[in-house]
Specification:
Blueprint (H helix, E strand, L loop, with lengths): L1 H48 L8 H16 L2 H10 L4 H8 L6 H15 L9
């Protein structure tokens, strides 16, 4: 009888471990998907921002800057969800969140590099 109970316990433990691994893999896939969604929005923001040139009238430049920042900040929920699922996306979330304090032109190099990695076949910032 004790052997039967021990065998069931081992089986249950194995099933729980397998389920945890499976759920972990699902969470990671969801994190990558969320990070990619964030980067798609980031790229839309960068596209808006790139429309500003030295000859752009001030009022138009101000409007484009505001539009780009609003678009960039709209990527924050997806980036936060990605970070929640996989901490390796924290740098992306942090960089996006800096848009409330730092001009976007100073964030462009970091955002471009981070999203290039996220949208690649190996979407790991720490790899």
């Amino acid at each position: 009888m004790a052997r039967l109970i021990r065998g069931r316990s081992l089986l249950a433990g194995g099933l729980l471990a397998g389920a945890a691994l499976g759920l972990g893999a699902c969470g990671h896939g969801a994190a990558v998907s969320q990070a990619r969604q964030a980067c798609t929005t980031v790229n839309e923001s960068l596209k808006i921002y790139s429309q500003i040139t030295p000859t752009t009238p001030t009022a138009e430049a101000n409007q484009l800057t505001a539009d780009a920042q609003a678009k960039l900040l709209s990527a924050l929920p997806s980036a936060a969800a990605a970070t929640s699922g996989d901490g390796s996306f924290n740098a992306l979330m942090t960089t996006i969140s800096e848009a409330t304090r730092v001009p976007e032109n100073l964030l462009v190099p970091s955002l471009t590099a981070q999203c290039k990695v996220v949208l690649s076949n190996t979407p790991y910032l720490a790899s």
